[in-house]
Amino acid sequence: MKHSSALAMLASSTALAPVPRAVTVMPRADANDPKAMIAAIQNAFDEFKKANDEKLNGKADALINAKVDQINAAIDNYQTAIDDINAKIAAANIGNVIGDMPADPEYVKAFKAHMRKGDVSAAMTKGTDADGGYLAPIEWDRTITGKLKRISPIRANARVQSITTAGFKKLFTDRAVGSGWVGETASRPATSTPQLGQLDFIPGEIYANPAISQQMLDDSAVDLEQWLADEVDTEFARQEGIAFVGGDGVNKPFGILTYVTGAANAAKHPWGAISVVNSGAAAALTSDGFISLFYDLPGEYAGNAKLYSNRLSIGAMRKLKDGQGNYLWQPSYQAGQPSTLAGVPLVEVNDMPNVAAGNIAALYGDMDATYLVVDRVGIRVLRDPFTNKPFVHFYTTKRVGGGVYNPEPMRALKVAA
Fold first, then answer.
1. Confidence (pLDDT) at 117
2. For 136-200, what is the HEC assignment?
3. At what angle do helices 62-90 and 34-54 cross, to 10 degrees?
4. Containing H/E element for 53?
5. Is the dihedral of CA 14, 70, 242, 380 positive or negative?
6. What keywords is this UniProt entry annotated with (predicted)?
7. Residue 399 near residue 165 (C-beta atoms within 8 A)
8. With a cut of 50, which residues of the chain have pLDDT below it?
9. pLDDT digit string, tens, across residues 223-267
10. Are 359 and 415 in contact (CB under 8 A)?
11. In 8, 162, 358, 383, which residue has its Cα 20 to 30 A from 405's Cα atom?
12. 276 and 367 share a domain?
């Protein structure tokens, strides 16, 4: 085979029973090399299509099913790595090494100086402190590795409005201006006049109040204040993402899914709810359902439209074909570009519901023209060393609101026949 094996790492981390070598044949790739990752995902997708075709043609057995699932998972990993590279490209952050631990020049200098002058009067071993163990200290990691927190990309795709007051009002008009054709001398009766409406976007408040002892702040070799600030920032972003998708508006943003037809805020907007298109199957996604979804959106909004769904749902989309047997999902072909479904860019939103009967499994449309995020002030930190001595509290707050300000540029895919 032209390419070397790359599913070995994946196979070792899965609970599936051992499978033949043929199941694990996939290309390796360097996660720091965009070209290699793109080539790897393209080859992996070719393997996936072959295996999935065997499954669809009635040749499926336990081994074929395991092969399809493993390759699908590997493609997810490749695509996630490419998405990370894309994010770094966007942030002009290529080249940074996370967790890189530079040598301590002061320690090295002091250690060398001691060894040049130190007296050695007996056999020395590092196993005993007095016999030399003090001279062989254990190096330790001066970085802190955090557990994964999934951050929603809704803010990055939505419209963000910064405000300097307690809230934000948006005015709307139905553009219902009446008109008509008349003769030269015919009367001109009054025509209909546009009606106005408004929506209020009131920020909610999110807070954190962690504490560190003063001595720990003084003595720690790690910049704990900066580390804690980064942790709180990540947690705020996670909480925001949850609220932007499904928030109930109680001291938090209104989630976009609450504006879908039949949901809690379906009647909140003057222009109605976000329209729903059925997937075409009671408990699954179908190719026809996505085609209906894409063409239900007015062409004026299609230019900036993207498909928003979670990772498991995207995995199900990867198996869909058109009437000619072509797969709708296509991997990234160049750095900085997302994978697509029928040519539509895909955005992974972890807080979207899974594929199940009655769920909204995907959103399709122009998020910038649909959802508004309202920021008041930004993140504010109050350093409090007095309330709970000897601890220093870092009382951190952020006021943010959100809601749909135009339902027309968005469609929702509901899992239903």
1. 57
2. CCCCCCCCCCCCCCCCCCHHHHCEEEEECCCCEEEEEECCCCCCCCCCCCCCCCCCCCCCEEEEE
3. 150
4. helix 34-54
5. positive
6. Signal
7. no
8. 1-27, 93-101, 120
9. 888 899 889 999 999 999 999 999 999 999 999 999 999 999 999
10. yes
11. 358
12. yes
Q: Token pair of 317, please?
A: 């989309």
Model pTM above 0.85: no
- CATH number for the domain spanning 354: value is 3.30.2400.10
pLDDT at 242: 95
In terms of domains, do 44 and 159 share one? no
Strand-pair category, 211-213 with 306-309: unpaired
Those residues whose C-beta lies under 8 Å from the C-beta of residue 42, and which sit 6 or more positions away, are 331, 333
What does DSSP assign to residue 206?
A: E
Q: What pLDDT shows up at residue 98?
A: 39
Sign of the four-CA dihedral 119, 120, 122, 125: positive
pLDDT of amino acid 112? 61
Q: What's the full length of the chain, in residues?
A: 417
- Contact (Cβ atoms closer than 8 angstroms) between residue 363 and residue 412: yes
Query: Are 282 and 205 in the same domain?
Result: yes
* b/e map 250-285, b = 16+ CB within 10 Å: eebbbbbbbbbeebebbebbbeebbbbbbbbeeebb
Residue 293 shares a structural domain with residue 403: yes
User: In degrees, to the nearest 5, what angle opens at C-alpha 410 toward C-alphas 413 and 204?
Assistant: 105
What confidence score (pLDDT) does residue 5 get? 44
Which domain range does residue 21 map to? 8-90
- What's the rounded Cα separation, in Å, for the pair 133 and 209? 41
Kindly compute the dihedral angle of the four CA atoms of residues 201, 163, 196, 297, in this order, to the nearest 10 degrees.
-70
For residue 372, is it within any domain?
yes
183 domain-assigned: no
Quick: pLDDT tens for 181-212: 999 999 999 999 888 878 889 999 999 999 99
